[in-house]
Design a protein that fits this description.
- The chain is α/β, with parallel strands linked by helices and about 240 residues long.
- It has one domain: Acetylglutamate kinase-like (Carbamate kinase).
- The protein has 7 helices and 11 strands.
- The strands form 2 sheets. It has a 9-stranded mixed β-sheet with strand order 4-3-5-2-1-6-10-11-9, with helices on both faces. A two-stranded antiparallel sheet has the order 7-8.
- Strand 1, helix 1 and strand 2 form a beta-alpha-beta unit.
- It is globular, with a radius of gyration of 17 Å.
Amino acid sequence: MMKFNRVLLKLSGEALMGENQFGIDNKKLDTYAKEIKTAHERGIEIAIVIGGGNIFRGVQAEKGIMERVQGDYMGMLATMINGLALQAALESNGMKTRLMSSIKMEQIAEPYIRRRAIRHLEKGRIVIFGAGTGSPYFTTDSAASLRAIEIEADVILKGTRVDGIYSADPEKDPTATKFESITFDEVYEKGLNVMDLTAFTLCKENDLPIIVFDMNKPGNLNKVVKGEEEGTLVKG
């Protein structure tokens, strides 16, 4: 038996860069698509939220001449570009998908409607949520938490480039220790950076567990959806 029936996978836009400094690496995109396909073929209903940091981040606006609101909307459009790319990669691997947007853009994506999204999942389609929450000042982490709660996902799977949550940044501190599991309160107390505070609080208040794992290691996503001990589990 699978541990999860319906999951929301959160991916960073930067992950799509691969070895590049900007944009989308087609090889990395195809690798992710194949990983998602393997998990989906186990009967898991999968929704995805992907960031846009490989193209533009809203906070960049504050460093230039743009207002934050303008920059955030640009960031939302960046997530739609990544969503289109991921949709194409999944479909080239034989998956049926739907791209849904929080901002109206009927020519390329369906508008986000909760009931429709759930119906797509029930029919075996992979649903990609783009354009964040549709409002400025919210990150794609917040969008992932919100959508996961709305579609009644069992868990948020946060795919990163490290294999879990550590006491410090393992890429900078070799003495950092990994947590196999940790509570929401312990994350607050230790000041660990799992998600932004808004997203994390949404998960805590709605008793939605989070698993942080290394998406770049082949087979890891499949292990997580099977319920194997992989990454770090955050729960109440």
